[in-house]
């Protein structure tokens, strides 16, 4: 394989691991949850090695390996 082909394969693999936010449920009396990659994830729980640290009205913050990542609703 050429370097370009290897890069393309690496890109496709990383795209498969992308986290996608498709819904948010916020509650005053229980934990907030997010629908990420078709899985319900509570604040403080993890998905694919990333911890859900904050749920807002239209976005969530995830922490992975010391880095924060923000996912927004489409």
What does this structure look like?
- The chain is α+β, with helices and mostly antiparallel strands and 74 residues long.
- It has one helix at residues 3-16; strands at residues 21-25, 33-36, 39-42, 46-47, 50-55, 59-64, 67-72.
- Strands 4-5-6-7 form a four-stranded antiparallel sheet, with no helix packed on it.
- The N and C termini lie far apart (36 Å).
- The model is unreliable at 1-16 (pLDDT under 50).
The largest sheet is: 4 strands, antiparallel
Mean pLDDT: 82
Coarse structural class? alpha+beta
- What percentage of residues falls in helices of 4 or more residues? 10-25%
Q: H/E order of the elements?
A: HEEEEEEE
Residues in β-strands, percent = 35-45%
Using the CA coordinates, give the radius of gyration: 15 Å
Question: Biggest sheet: strands side by side, in what order?
Answer: 4-5-6-7
Distance between the termini: 36 Å
Helical segment tally? Answer: 1
Low-confidence stretches: 1-16
Number of strands: 7
Gross morphology is globular
């Amino acid at each position: 394989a050429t370097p370009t082909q290897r890069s393309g394969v690496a890109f496709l693999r990383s795209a498969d691991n992308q986290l996608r936010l498709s819904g948010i449920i916020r509650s005053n009396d229980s934990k907030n949850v997010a629908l990420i990659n078709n899985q319900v994830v509570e604040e403080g729980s993890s998905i694919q090695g990333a911890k859900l640290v904050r749920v807002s009205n239209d976005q969530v913050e995830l922490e992975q390996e010391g880095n924060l990542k923000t996912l927004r609703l489409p």
